[in-house]
Amino acid sequence: MKRKGLLFFIVMLLSLSMIGTASAAPKLRIMVNNSSVDVGVQIVSGKTLVPLKAFERFKNTSIQWDANTKQATIARDSMKIKLTVGSRTAWKNSDAVQLDVSAKIVDGRVAVPLRFIAEALGARVTVDAASNTVWVQERANAKLVQNYNSNDLVVSRIAALQFPVEEREPSKLTGDNEALSMTYYFPEGRSDGYFILYGHFVKYYEIKDNIVKVVWEADLDMSKEATNKDFTAIFGYPVAKEYGKAPVLAPSYASFYTSVWGSQIIYGMVDADGTTKVSGQSLYWGNNEPFVVAIPGETKL
Question: What residues contact residue 295 under an 8 Å CB cut-off, 6+ apart?
Fold first, then answer.
């Protein structure tokens, strides 16, 4: 009897241990365009389904739902996707696709396969196993990519500033920001990366895979003047704190100072040693008005 009791006790301990381990597993987190999908996430046969409305966060995307046929239609640019609840056959334009799991209606919501829809719309899907998070980030649409690849630097840079921004890493800069005036710096002849200086904060954005990501940011010490021939010379003040990996310094930068307060744009070139050459200025009223202009003598590399 004692031996049976001991065995029962060991089994109970193992069971509790297994329960504790299972309960400790983090809940799957879904992030679509930097926003969390908090309700309606389903795991069916190892596949993740999310509410159809989650894809309303994509730009230039329309979603239609036919309650009679139980068919959903998602369209973006030249891509049109059709799914029917309960059917594992979906359509990408005129091509039939067999799904691993069909769309379903759960608690009054239409749930659709996450990866299939996201990738069909041209988005990037990545999984962070450490945080048990699925990240879905839309890429720039075909028109933006076409403009970005233009040999016209003005067209290319305006498109670059309109690319979707991935915000997987939250900003570490703290404090009040003065956004009535901002300065944008593009490496001479390029549009694949840029600094934005606002108040005493500065960030460097880099374009890869048709997505923009912040790779470096800093808090400037505006009580001092810059003395080194590095990033600090461009901005005029030394770095007090920085986060991320700073980009390789370019020989010179095209700069665009915008001020809603002063209703003006001042543009020109800034060398790596901080030498500035103003090319011109014009009126600026904000409201998403394009402020990137051609700088005399600059061509796309």
Answer: 254, 267, 268, 269, 279
Residue 220 sits in the same domain as residue 258: yes
Residue 9 has phi, psi (to 5 degrees) of -65, -40
Q: Give ∠ CA 127-130-135 in degrees, rounded to 5.
A: 25
* CA–CA separation, 223 and 106 (whole Å): 58
Q: Could you read off the pLDDT of 126-158 as tens digits, one per residue?
A: 999 989 999 999 999 999 999 999 999 999 999
Cα(25)–Cα(43) distance, integer angstroms: 15
**Among candidate residues 92, 111, 137, the one where a domain is terminated:** 137
Over 90: is that where the pLDDT of 263 sits?
no
Whether residue 118 is contained in a domain is answered as yes
Asked, for residue 233, whether it belongs to a domain, the answer is yes
How confident is the model at residue 15, as a pLDDT? 42
Tens of pLDDT, residues 38-93:
899 999 999 999 999 999 999 889 999 999 999 999 999 899 999 999 999 999 99
Tokens for 186? 């593009």
What are the contacts of 283-292 at 24+ separation with CB within 8 A?
A: 284/258, 284/259, 284/260, 285/260, 286/258, 286/260, 290/158, 291/184, 291/256, 291/258, 291/265, 292/154, 292/157, 292/158, 292/161, 292/184, 292/256
Number of domains in the chain: 2
Asked if 150 and 266 sit in the same domain, the reply is yes
Q: Do β-strands 29-32 and 133-137 pair in parallel, antiparallel, or remain unpaired?
A: parallel
pLDDT confidence bin for 285, thresholds 50/70/90: low
d(CA 174, CA 172): 6
CA separation for the pair 184, 196 (Å, rounded)? 5
Shared domain for 207 and 278, answered yes or no, is: yes
